[in-house]
Design a protein that fits this description.
The chain has 7 helices and no strands. With about 180 residues, it is mostly helical. The protein is flat.
């Protein structure tokens, strides 16, 4: 059976954006800049395709949340070790940057990963040991964000906690009655 290939507006816009980025080869100042930008465009395309094909059942969402929380704690652990044991040779040098070159960039994924710890805490599929593991991984993320002294990150976490707490208070009946 030959099914006609249907393309949505979102797929078309993403494809055109990727093509535009790939064509930037013709006006790139340096070929190295083009290769780095092309790799970034490819990462976006692959992430979009993976996200498009993910299933939305609860078990898969919990697995993804665990993977993101472990990844965030690894980033945070590297940053904490840099803060505690990194021999700084220059006063202008800013650390801990973890695996990134800037502390503000390093905390961005951690701020986005943080709400997944709430999701894992409230999930009914957890066993008795997992809340302690979630608390440990989340505390590593908090410690690293504290060490970065990034006011933007602190403000973002504060707003996230207020919004998530408000959401939980409004929907507390639905959260604890659903499976």
């Amino acid at each position: 059976e030959n099914k006609p290939y249907r393309i949505s507006h979102l797929k078309l816009a993403s494809l055109l954006l990727f093509i535009f980025g790939a064509l930037s080869f013709f006006w790139a100042v340096n070929i190295d800049f083009y290769i780095t930008k092309l790799l970034l465009w490819l990462i976006v395309v692959f992430c979009f395709r993976i996200g498009l094909n993910l299933s939305n059942n609860k078990e898969d969402l919990i697995k993804i949340s665990w993977l993101l929380l472990f990844t965030g704690s690894i980033i945070a652990s590297i940053g904490i070790l840099q803060y505690l044991f990194y021999p700084s040779s220059s006063i202008e040098e800013i650390y801990p940057t973890s695996t990134f070159g800037n502390t503000n960039i390093a905390v961005q994924p951690l701020i986005l990963i943080f709400p997944f710890s709430f999701y894992l805490f409230l999930s009914k599929l957890n066993n008795t040991k997992s809340p302690w593991i979630i608390a440990l991984l989340t505390s590593l993320i908090f410690i690293y964000i504290f060490y970065t002294t990034s006011r933007g990150a602190w403000l973002s976490i504060f707003i996230e906690v207020i919004l998530i707490s408000g959401f939980i208070l409004i929907n507390i009946g639905k959260i604890f009655s659903s499976e």
